[in-house]
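Worked example

This section walks through a single chain of length 335. The input is the sequence exactly as stored; nothing has been trimmed or padded.
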Amino acid sequence: MDRTRRRRTGALTGAVAALTLALTGLSTVGAASAADAGTRAVPKHAVTGYWQNFNNGAQVQKLADVQDEYDIIAVSFADATGTPGEVTFNLDSAGLGGYTVDQFKADIKAKQAAGKSVIISVGGEKGAVSVNDAASANAFADSVHKLMQEYGFDGVDIDLENGVNSTYMSQALKSLSGKAGSGLVLTMAPQTIDMQSTSTEYFKTALAVKDILTVVNMQYYNSGSMLGCDGKVYSQGSVDFLTGLACIQLEGGLAPSQVGIGVPASSSAAGGGYVAPDVVNNALDCLAKGTGCGSFKPSKTYPDIRGAMTWSTNWDASAGSAWSKSVGAHVHGLP
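Given that input, the structure is written out below as tokens.
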């Protein structure tokens, strides 16, 4: 996810073969139970959308314009400072047509009053935020908490696409949770390569903080082919790609309530991997109820699967909000 049109298009050539053995034994790990911490104002089945704090050709929105179907709104993005690990936020008032900080803060409160969670997203394709030692972990936790206090954010989204250190990012997030309390909403948006195995740094981070983790909305796009939990290779843009890769997370230690499907809102929002809303809905049904599957069908169902995410609410608006109208209604209709 980036400030031009989309997040990085990864070639990832050869990565699938290299990770084949890493999937061995996932079925024995089991889907662990997770505490309900970190789910303030988040319904059992939720829709997440990224809101763009910049104009990249998608429809410009004020936060108040974000479609009502979105339960978690991730403000994109926080900015790095000169201090390692530290982040800040700079509203692009000029790019958003004169949108003021006071209006932005008021809109956050209004969304929260309507039952939505508004969080600050850290990263994106070009987000140069590095948490690699104790000092930067402390700086990250302190600065994110400061933004939560200043703007009223409910939590944070980790969308770091240039590497994560599980030891210190976990430390930072646990520290942040201690400051923010049990109401913290914590989401993640790893790339597909980051969640192929429980040994990857992103997956290790998610497991280390699963007691405070709300949802991992992996980006099932700009990916290339990847392995499913059955060891078979699946191509992006298909229902099997969504279900086969979600299965790795579901059987790798995350609770179903901590797994969501992240997709582009339109073909303009990503370099590859766009799927029509009905494909997302079929994948959710396959995972939750065992219906609508493609060639891959999980050995069991996961009725508590959290839902879906899209990049972005702006691209969704540009396409007439077709994605949120279809997927939003479907997610909210899951049992």
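What to look for: The radius of gyration is 18 Å.
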